[in-house]
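Q: Structure for this?
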Amino acid sequence: DSGVTQTPKHLITATGQRVTLRCSPRSGDLSVYWYQQSLDQGLQFLIQYYNGEERAKGNILERFSAQQFPDLHSELNLSSLELGDSALYFCASSVQGGDTEAFFGQGTRLTVV
Amino acid sequence: GQNFDQPTEMTATEGAIVQINCTYQTSGFNGLFWYQQHAGEAPTFLSYNVLDGLEEKGRFSSFLSRSKGYSYLLLKELQMKDSASYLCAVFSGGYNKLIFGAGTRLAVHP
C-alpha cells in the first residue's frame, strides 16, 4: 500500500457526461501528479500541483481540469466525455516537487460507453 | 523537451540476469527513476539515480551515465513475478514535470 488513495476504483459513464476523480496523497506529501494511461500505452503526464498551486501542465485537454484543495487532496474533473477518454487515471504524490520519488495510487479505471 | 528510448519488449528465463536500457534526452535533468508496473496495476518505485554509477538494491541494480544520457536497470536471479513493464522517468524542465518513457515489457519464462 503506497498510502495514496484514489476513488472511485471503477467508473462507467456515458459519452458527454462529466466525472470527478479524487486523490488523497500520502500524509505529509505536498505534491500531486495526475496521469492518464490508455490500454497498452505509457503514462501520459497531465498536471501537477504543489501545496495547492498548479506547477506543471502536460498535454491535458481543455475538457479536463484539476485542483488541489487546502487539505492537499486533489480532484481531476473530466467533462464532455468521449469514448477515447476511457483509460486508467493515476494520481501520484511526493514530499515535494522534483528530486524525490513519487508514489502512485491504485488508479481509477474509467470506461466511457 | 524530453525523449526516451527503451526496448518495447524483452524475454528472459527464470533465474537469469536481464539488463533493460533507457536513453533519454531532456531539457533539465535532476536524476533518473525506474518504476515497475504490473499490468493494470499502479507503478511502484524501484530506484533513483542522481550521480553517475551503479547503485545496487537487492536483486535490482540501476546505472546512470549523465554525460551519455543513458541508464540501465539490471535484474538478477529473475523470478516469474518480475514479469512486468519497467519504466524510466525523469523530471523534465525543473522539479515539477515527472515524465515517463513508454516502458519495456519483460516476460520471464520458466
